[in-house]
Known about the structure:
The protein is of the alpha+beta class.
Amino acid sequence: MMIREETTGTGVETLELAREVIAMAQQRGLQVVDFKFIDLPGTWQHFSIPVSELDEKLFVEGLGFDGSSIRGFQAIHESDMLLVPDPTTAFVDPVCKVPTLSLICNVVDPITREQYTRDPRYVAQKAEAYLVKTGIATISYWGPEAEFFIFNDIRFHQDSRSGYYFIDSDEGIWNSGPDSRTWATARATRRATSRSRRPTNSRTCARRWS
């Protein structure tokens, strides 16, 4: 359940929304709060706390974390970072067996209190603000690109003197010509033939000819 979608503009609004989130968590008997953010390559990172530790201060002061353990973030000597939960992103995770409240966070510098320039969410927020400023549009929607590959055959080998990999897919452009069923049969035949023709090692050959 999403609490609210619009962006908050002041600290007062943030606290009001924070109270709504906390009340909802208590009413629905949630047990865990999961804080999410994104690393520089775009992978979700998260950690959790008991819902009993969720209070209004977290939405203002944030939670500390080690930025040096996140890809593309901070060096070890400047690793202290903050996560500030965005109450407008609150929803009950439909997948978790333990009732869990999910919150997406902004990454913040603990000294300057400015948003972190390498936080992909902040990059998206700036792009959205620029879009509105240009007058091209007032609303933009951002989301991940679901990209995946389906392979029908994957083989690889590596030893001290050789290595190879072989990938095949019926959806590959190289398989666009022949009939897929005929091609699959021919491919299986080629694989069986290639395996039967594999050379034996030199010691085996020597024993056979001796």
